[in-house]
Every structure is written in C-alpha cells, then in structure tokens.
Model the fold of this input.
Amino acid sequence: MDTELKISVLGANPSWQKTMFFHDLRMGKVNRAREENSYPSGKGINFCRALRYSGLADFQIFQFAGGNNGKLLCEALDADGFEHHTITTEKETRNCITCLDRDGNMTELIGASHPVSENEIHQMLTALKTYLPGSGILAVTGSLPDGTSCDLYADAVKLAAECDIPVLIDAVAGIEDMLSVPGKFILKVNQDEFIKITGEKDIIAAHRCAAKKFPGKIFAITNGPGEATLSNGKKLYHYTLPEIKVVNPLGSGDTASAVMSALFALGVTEDEVFKQALAAASANCLTETAGMFIPEESRKLAAKIKVSTGDLL
Done:
C-alpha cells in the first residue's frame, strides 16, 4: 500500500464469520441458504479490511485468538497479507453466523467468547507498547471477550496518550475511563449506544451532556439509515443519508470508523471526515462482505449526503 500512515487497531474480540443468504428467512422453520461464505471478522478485522479498500492507510491489528476458529482466522489473515499481532489464548475464538434475506434484513447469531488471562492481557499491552510508537492513530474497536476486565481498554488508551497519538473509540466497554484520559479522541458509536452512555433521552441532549462531561472530545454518532450527528464541543452537525438498496449492512459501522480514523489522522476536518465515513459505510452496505466497499461508489454517495450545522450549547 502506497502510504506512510499506519493505524494501530485493537480488535480484541475477533470472530470466525459465516454469512448465509436466504430468499426468505422464517423463524421457527427450516431455512435453506442459497449462498454462504466464511471469513475472518469482528470489528477490528472489518475495520482493517475497509482500510485496505480505502487505500488511505496501512494497518496493524492487535487481537486475541485461540482454538480451531483462531487457527482458521489467523491462517486466513496471513493468506490475505494482514499484519496482525495475535496473542494466542487457551480458549476458543468465538464464531458469528449472519443470516440475510432478499431484502437485506439481518439476523445475527453471535457465539460465546471467553475471558482472557492476566498473562494474555500483559502480553497484549506489551505488544501495544512496542508497536504503537509511529502510528498515526489508535483505533479501539468492538467488545472485549466476555468476562475480560475493561482496564485493558483504559490502559491501551493511556499508552497512546503517552505517545501523543490520537484515539478513535468504537466501543462502549469502559468508555468513561477511556474518555477521561487527556488527549485528542473521537468516540464513534451508534445513537442507541450514545443515549445509554449519556443517560439522556434525545440525541441533542446527549451531545450536550457529553460535551460538558468530556470536554475536548469529538462525538460521531451513526443511526443506521437515519440522521447521523457529530459534535466537537462547539458545533453540532446533522447528516442526512441517501436511500440505498441494502445487500448486507454487516461491517458498515466498522467501515465508517476506518475511513474516519485515516482521514482524521491525515488532518481532514472532523465534519468532512464524518461525511466521507458515512458514505463509505453506505457503500459497504452494497456489498456482501463486511468491510468491503468500492471507493468510487463511496464518492458518489458522499455527494448526496446533506449536511446542516448549528451551535451545540
């Protein structure tokens, strides 16, 4: 990849993904897929796949993986040339089965994950401390393996702050501890998650609450096909997305995070960064694979996104 920018991605909880496509999906009935595919996934891996399609930055992913699913996952990443720092775990990596009907309606079956040990966490933080310097940005993506301490995320963010590296957070575990660390951070979550984080009843109140509680942070909030919003402590931006025919929405949020991270690290203003990220997320919905999108389709969609702005406080 012809770029000097490298993004470090903490994708602690990957999965072996199987996506099955049906003409119709009926609960409580026998359903026979018309097509299926399997590949490495999880928010961190989807993020890296989207970065590759964007051409904006190179990447290195930090993850836990173990068992047969972990072996399949790492072998596939190696075959695709994904740079990964994998901490091998005693427990099996989870799997995820996604079922889609002809209208793009999605049902996800997410397998159980398992706690990682203190030694495995220590190995992860050691790897991050070694390889973070020189990164343009750290992206913290997705859930932690079930039962794993949220301190891992807070400690990772502190390592980035010590190196004066900006952080994009696409996660909700341990969020207050992460956002309390001084530094240039973006929180990119969906609207339901943001409402829960702030405890407010509507999106504007949530942005105002977050701005007061975590000054200096940027909040980029997706809302599926609905209106997305972004605040930077002073301004509140509203984004109206064009209608599209959805093939598979899986990975659209990860695609947005990837494009947003890269453009932000390259110095593009946060309002334009989010517009381009939302366009890439929409373009991902037009493909069958999470994190895959065609940049030309993204550019066409970006031109159709309507943006309005006003004062936040």
Remarks:
- The longest strand covers residues 58-65.
